[in-house]
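cron nightly-structures :: item 1 of 1
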Amino acid sequence: MDEAHRQTGAGELDGAASGAPDNAASAPLQTGPDGPTDTGADSAPPTPPFDETLVEELGALIDNGRNYAQAEISFQKTRAMLMAKLVSQWLGLVIVALIMVHIASLALAVGLVIALAPLVTIWGAIAIVLGLLLLTAFLFGRKAYKRARHLAEVFLSEEERGEK
């Protein structure tokens, strides 16, 4: 091939073919503490020294993350203990209130029996009060059953509802 048809840079693998000087061969070598170094134009720039502050900052970041996680876990444990204490106190107060309501209902039943005894005899008064208490218990029980059934239907799938 003649020179006119060549692409720029094609066939110039060695500097002698094009007549250009070889930079690597003509660049002077300098000696340093690590030995001879090439200062030629085509050599790579020197790599910067390893930055240890970045490693220290990453270590500090990891330590801070660990400290934050431990503090969050401690906070949540303290919060859970506080909630357990408050719930146990609340439950105790509810139990005492229910006991008081039970005692009050017993007192009401006894009072009704005593009040009705002169009108319908003692056995009639006991029968009336017992009947009212059983009727009230039945009505509340039936209402609770309907609510429980409705609650169960909420959690059933469409297929399970269709089977019933």
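cron nightly-structures :: done
The first helix runs from residue 15 to 18.
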